[in-house]
């Protein structure tokens, strides 16, 4: 059961960590452990829906153009191509998540694993420093980004960290890969939440806790997303690696005691 204060705290944590490349699932696992919070899968789903609405609102113009190009079947339009790239990029996490979903719950409670995964995320992030971006998205790059997104089903592995870093390694323009990464999160997170809802049903948390958790994750998530886009444009994405290293090492040390 999650009370109002805990709901707000978890919503803030979700809002900050969903878009920053530091793993929201890893942080939620840590906060659940140290604050001794037992929330339902449905409540965690509500928090994720709060942050996914942020992306839909932030990129509403691009989403509208995608929908319009699909309705018109304008195959030559850049937004129809973007839709196709998002479609193929979403396939890997759907397949991978289906086969490993049964193992995720056990891993989430294992702080040693979460610490290790955070360090892995840091290693990926630090390599993005001074990468030259001059290419556009292609079918191959969309598939590769979709494949690394699948790794984010494991707590501690950052979805945005994996996808944006991979795009940078491939030389894709940073503003293009950032938009693609955030738009790619929509089917991934919505698909996972629908699956979890079907599997687990509605949680037992009071409506007030769910509403406040949703609102806090959405409000903080919007601020965080704008902040991250600015960081990416200023070539500071790699700096989040230091945080991942520090927290990962700390969690590994704590897990031994």
Give an overview of the whole structure.
The structure is a single chain. With 257 residues, this protein is mostly helical. It has one domain (4-255). It is 76% helix and 0% strand. It is built from 11 helices and no strands. The protein has helices spanning 4-17, 24-34, 41-58, 60-72, 78-108, 111-126, 139-149, 159-169, 174-200, 207-233, 240-255. Helix 1 runs antiparallel to helix 2 and helix 5 crosses helix 9 (174-200). The longest helix has 31 residues, at 78-108. The two termini are 27 Å apart. The relative contact order is 0.21.
In short:
By secondary structure, the chain is mainly alpha-helical. The protein has one domain (4-255).
Shape: globular
Into how many domains do the coordinates divide?
1
Proportion of helical residues: over 70%
Order of helices and strands: HHHHHHHHHHH
Class from secondary-structure proportions:
mainly alpha
Major sheet size, sense and barrel closure? none
Cα(first) to Cα(last) distance is 27 Å
- Which band does the percent of strand residues land in? under 5%
Uncertain runs are none
The overall pLDDT average reads: 91
The counted number of beta strands is 0
State the helix count. 11
Radius of gyration, in Å, reads 18 Å
